[in-house]
Please model this.
Amino acid sequence: MEENLYGILRAGFADCLDEPCLCPPGQAARSYRELDELSARYAGLLGELGLQAGDRAVAQVEKSTEAVALYMACLRTGVIYVPLNTAYTPAELEHFLGDAQPRLFVATPAAAVEPAAQQADVPHLLSLDSQGGGSLAQRARSVVPRETLEPRAASDIAAIVYTSGTTGRSKGAMLSIGNLASNARTLYSLWGWRADDVLLHALPVFHVHGLFVALHCALLGGHRVLFHTRFDAPVVRGALAEATVMMGVPTFYTRLLEEPGFSKADCARMRLFISGSAPLLAASMEAFAQRTGHRILERYGMTEAGMITSNPLDGERIAGSVGYPLPGVTVRVRSDAGQDCPVNEVGQVEIRGPNVFAGYWRQPEKTRAEFTADGFFRTGDLGSLSADQRLTLVGRSRDLIISGGYNIYPKEIESALDALAGVAESAVIGVPHADLGEGVVAIIVAAGEPPEEAALHDALTGRLAKFKHPRRYVVLNSLPRNAMGKVEKQRLRERYTELLSQDPSFI
Ligand code: MLC
Ligand code: AMP
Model:
């Protein structure tokens, strides 16, 4: 049986080689055959550079056909693909490169990250630019394409996706071919993909949602993908006319609702809107249904497990619920004492199934700590199960902020702030934000004269990706603490819950 993930996907689109695959707006469509040939060429180059199955290739690249071809080339050759958010600063990069120890780092632009690559002793640094000495695309032109696929087992690792850790250092979640293939096949069938489906893709391709969930489904059936480099509400609204399926984070839907006159007429061909990565407010779901006649299908997932539960395609899609466990996936809700919670009672969500990752890269202890003795992964999410196994999430036990679908760990920002002269200590919280779901707020205790907000902002620039920067700073004389001395973040969240309700700017 074919276990190379590229082979599995290729079998899905083999009959559509001359059909359009990736269609960036305003540019010529690239056919499945072109993607197939380009990825074979890149695979040839990976071989020429000496990369072998199991080596890592880190990619911090803008969304493009070439970026997808690079991912496909890694799948073809068994090289482990490690995508990184393009917003990460060179300072943040050092950790990823040091941890993943790649043989190849592809970045756009490559020059800016040269010191980080040198520091981590990365043998090859290339860019995806079409020209120039360090251009992967240019070098690939003179390479003999590699058509043969590396034989692989389902347990082999296809990708490592970094996910922020509670200690502030990101951990690499190792996703096996079996994890990704089973999830893709399940979702393809569960969401009822039809031969004429066209996917509107406006998500980034460095996270599970855009790279695996959306792309794998489309490739498995040889579908056309309207490939937008970013989510631009008016542009996406216009593109809906040609699409039948869209996947997005809740911000996509709230922004579409803000488009004047957005209505049913904009979605004439659409059959399915899917939302996930962050909670979709019931109000957004109801408003969207009223305006378009579509009830958004909400599903629940995470980096370590791809998709876990989904509202039904046929059947009731309930606002506030993330639906039923996917076929083959077991979800249970347990008390802190490790007992199964009664129906509808809130506890820790734990999961088991073919989608659950193979562990954290080079962190066996951390991996062990996140699994129960009987093999369930502790998601860190809090929720309840109904009698018929419908899951409702109510929050997170981890100190995590989800802003526009990006995970932000307060500890990382607190460590950066605490290191600044002028800051004695800090507490970072997420509070409601109309556009992003949650927005970052930093509570500061000053050491001496309180620092200016602009000075704090400047000090974080270059150290932390922009999306992690606090939108507001509040200076207090001391942080509220409980009897154990722990900062009472819940009290802070309640006190400042309105702080970003008027946030006029997007940062
Ligand atoms: C951008 N910015 C953000 C931000 N995105 N700030 C906070 N949170 C975010 N999510 C900041 C930028 O740093 C920049 O700041 C300014 O906003 C404008 O940047 P932009 O790139 O023009 O923003 P925009 O294109 O509007 O992007 C917003 C967004 C995008 C919500 C559309 O972030 C997005 O596509 N999010 C999807 C994330 C995703 O795919 N998550 C899935 C994870 S997988 P400045 O200062 O430079 O102006 C997962 C599992 C699962 O969770 O279940 O799916
Ligand atoms: P990530 O680590 O980026 O993969 O984010 C995973 C986290 O996103 C999960 O643990 C949940 O907390 C959250 N999440 C994903 N989908 C949903 C959803 N539909 N509703 C609420 N939270 C979600």
In short: The mean pLDDT is 95. The chain has three domains: 5-20+27-188, 231-396, 401-502. The CA atoms of residues 289 and 295 lie 5 Å apart.
